[in-house]
Write a structure and sequence with these properties.
Strand order of the largest sheet: 2-3-5-6-7-8-9-10-11-12-13-15-16-19-20-21
CATH superfamily: Porin
Oligomer: single chain
Structural class: mainly beta
Largest sheet: 16 strands, antiparallel, barrel
Shape: globular
Strand content: over 45%
Order of helices and strands: HEEEEEEEHHEEEEEEEEEEEEEEE
Number of domains: 1
Helix content: under 10%
CATH topology: Porin
CATH architecture: Beta Barrel
Number of helices: 3
CATH class: Mainly Beta
């Protein structure tokens, strides 16, 4: 199904041009979402934070078809914050614009095989959810833990030991490690980014097997721009096997430095950031038949800080189910967890969990107004170890409009 998802993404921007048998052309599909969140998540950091939060998100996908094999693709996002459920933890109203993807691609397809090459700013090749980031593809309103929720670890500072990591839970927003590094305020890291990474990727398929290999300038856990002083070459790879139509299993992994140049002078002589990588491993299963579909994913990301016998690692997983009730209505469910595992530093200090574990259960009902518009209504229950009450629960409404493409053939 990963191969199928890649084919659908390609069809999104070249499909209308093929319909005209045009060798070249441009297309600009886009998705605009407006919504409201109702939650008290922000009051942990600001007791006066508003409970009802309106927001919007617009994503444009301009593309250029150069000929039958070469193309240029981009993804430009304009978003208010808070918009996503996890944004509600940070009660700051702002609007941001960023280029999420921009790459040159080459694609060849045969009867039983295909190959594709891309270079530029690319989505991470790790996992399966980056292909479902669009609000029209995601049947729910929130994102899974591993792709959207910040872990209180900093790549620009060094923690002194286990007690340093455990102390981070006392900070509602920004955090600080105490053994040196940057002096700027910072929130932490998302285990796997949904933003683009500068790099190159080759992918292909043969019969029921698909595979991909990606080299980028920075880690999926800590993306860097091409102007950053903290760039280091990374690799990400994945493969999958389609057991039968609609049933695919896959694995993926990545490895590379995640620390930034701010800590370079603090490392032991003879070592550098490349000696302390972030390592991710994951597996996913996708299944669909008739009106039912299911996706399950598990991942583990380890952050190898100096001074640790057993470094901090974050494991997360989710199960997502969707049922089409009739041509207009569907319902969906996602249950997920995040575990912050056992840590041990060089002094022998140990903690079973360096930060509290948490779980989330989300349900949503979707109504397709027409081929272009969908209304989603959902509720999420979140439980964090040691935290009582319903403060972290969220009720959300989202209205999504998707225009397949404005296209012009040359």
């Amino acid at each position: 199904m990963r191969k199928t998802a890649m084919t659908l993404l390609a069809a999104l921007f070249v499909g209308p041009l093929h319909a005209q048998d045009a060798p070249r052309g441009i297309a600009v599909p886009f998705t605009v979402s407006g919504g409201v969140l109702v939650s008290e998540r922000g009051r942990a950091a600001d007791p006066d934070a508003q409970r009802v939060i309106p927001g919007f998100r617009a994503v444009f996908y301009p593309s250029l078809k150069i000929d039958s094999k070469w193309f240029v693709y981009s993804d430009i996002q304009v978003q208010s914050k808070p918009f996503f459920y996890y944004d509600a933890f940070y009660p700051k109203n702002e609007v941001s614009t960023r280029v999420q993807q921009l790459f040159l691609g080459y694609s060849w397809m045969g009867e039983e095989s295909s190959i594709e090459f891309k270079a530029g700013k690319l989505p991470s090749a790790f996992g399966s959810f980056p292909l479902r980031y669009d609000d029209t593809v995601n049947p729910l309103l929130d994102q899974p833990f591993g792709y959207g929720y910040i872990v209180k670890l900093r790549p620009d500072q060094l923690p002194c030991g286990v007690s340093d990591l455990v102390h981070q839970q006392t900070y509602p927003l920004y955090m600080e490690h105490y053994c040196g590094g940057s002096t700027a305020e910072r929130r932490g890291m998302v285990p796997v980014t949904l933003d683009g990474l500068p790099g190159a990727e080759v992918s292909g398929s043969w019969q029921k097997i698909d595979a991909r290999f990606q080299a980028t300038n920075s880690s999926p856990s800590n993306p860097q721009s091409l102007r950053s002083k903290s760039q280091n070459v990374q690799w990400t790879a994945g493969t999958g096997y389609t057991i039968r139509q609609g049933f695919r299993i896959g694995i993926s992994g990545f490895r590379g430095p995640f620390l930034e140049s701010d800590v370079r002078e603090l490392l032991d002589p003879g070592t550098n950031e490349r000696d302390f990588p972030a390592v991710g491993i994951g597996t996913d299963v996708q299944w669909g038949r008739g009106r039912w579909s299911a996706i399950a994913e598990w991942q583990r990301v380890e952050f190898n800080y100096p001074g640790f016998e057993k470094p901090p690692a974050v494991s997360s997983g989710f199960l997502e189910l969707k049922a089409t009730l009739n041509p207009r209505f569907y319902t969906a469910f996602r249950g997920g967890y995040e575990s912050r595992g056992r840590v041990e530093d060089d002094s022998g200090d140990v903690a079973e969990h360096f930060l509290p574990n948490r779980q989330a259960w989300e349900v949503a009902l979707g109504y397709r107004v027409n081929h272009f518009q969908t209304i989603k209504v959902g509720y999420e229950w979140m439980k964090t170890s040691g935290v009582a009450g319903t403060r972290d629960n969220v009720f959300g409404i989202q209205f999504v409009t998707s225009i397949r493409a404005f296209s012009k053939a040359f």
